[in-house]
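Hey, quick one: can you model this chain's 3D structure?
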Amino acid sequence: MEILKARVKYGAGKEIETKYGLRKNIVVELANGQEIKIWGNRDIEQYQKGQEIMVVAEEQGKYQILPTPQPSMEEAITKNCKLMANCYKQMEQLLPELDKAELQAMATSVFINLARRLP
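Sure thing. Here's the predicted structure for all 119 residues.
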């Protein structure tokens, strides 16, 4: 078993009926230039063209995607708190004439807009 870096060359296409049921595949390119297909269920749709992923090379030439760890709830809260604080500080510097309630409202709007766009 070996862990390798790969880049998604082609994202998931249409579902194909296989002996394992409906499946999809992606094509990834390994660091050495080798292209391989990795099969999966609908969860494989999350991998987009150009995305860097880690794959596990198993015996018999099979490959699987190594899942990336999801941040813990505490990490997500800390990240969002820092983002909100930064939004407020930026608003305070850009618009010093506004009172705290107006700054908070504007910073909250910017924060919500940014949070929707960030992973």
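One thing worth noting: The chain has two domains: 2-66, 73-117.
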